[in-house]
């Protein structure tokens, strides 16, 4: 079966966005007691979703692993400890625990270890609520169908069956608001950016880390490379996080590391930036200004061999500003796709347009949650 027919036959053909949202809310209404595990942003997303569908009546508590939150209230609901959740389960015959965190796989393991039965642990609500609030104007089904040829083209470019399974699984989970399509899709989060089946580091790597955060990827790279590399270029737009990055470099005595407090873009200009820890991003409503420039300029004297991007939705602009780097130098690329559904077709097609030689692979690194999806582009010389 050819790629396009395979793609069309496996892609969901019904818009299930509103159908499954209502069905889930009705299910929650019929449960005697509900605990939302996670009192942060994830818990708020779930709460807001259930409120929209008038399904708050049976929500009794938040739960959290953070001790400082125990005994506090959120949305007038008491935040309880894991031990108190166990007690609630013992006393209730009809209870559900909605895991409202991208770390739901780890939390599920924790709850199972506490003796809580799997059938009362809900791993669907968080992803459903997150995507429900993401797509306000057009459903994922409508977006995908309006760009069907582009998604098909990306699918046809993917170089292995694993990539195709990941790609279809994520698109179907979006269309259906059901993370059952992510079952078996994730690889170990420890392999992110350095997937052993795809990436083979050498001693001459010049690694450019766009969205370097506080140096977490730097630390992983140095460990995996056994401290044998040529240069590491860390680029971080958030001025406070940039300070943390430099402190980590200094404290650990890392050598041959250059850091830049700059945003990657398609031209040189000043942008507004919103600080948000791991999700800081360029936005017109940002709380401070940051200088932006192209990677063609920033890396003008560098023979970059590996280029990674996780820059919260600015990947399209940054890739367009890296036309020379990608087209002529041809580094390995590890580009995050998950910030926008449209990025799942836009970014791979930009890469192929800049350099058709690249072989494309897609891998995913959060179990049952559609975040941390990476498109790898490998030049023939590094296959």
UniProtKB/TrEMBL annotation:
Pfam families: Methyltransf_21. The keyword RNA-binding does not apply. InterPro entries: FkbM_mtfrase, SAM-dependent_MTases_sf. Residues 209-354 form the Methyltransferase FkbM domain. It comes from the Bacteria. The keyword Flavoprotein does not apply. One of its GO terms (biological process) is methylation. GO terms for molecular function: methyltransferase activity. Gene3D superfamilies: NAD(P)-binding Rossmann-like Domain, Vaccinia Virus protein VP39. Transmembrane segments: none annotated. Keywords: Methyltransferase, Transferase. This is Methyltransferase, FkbM family. It comes from Selenihalanaerobacter shriftii. The lineage of its organism: Bacteria, Bacillati, Bacillota, Clostridia, Halanaerobiales.
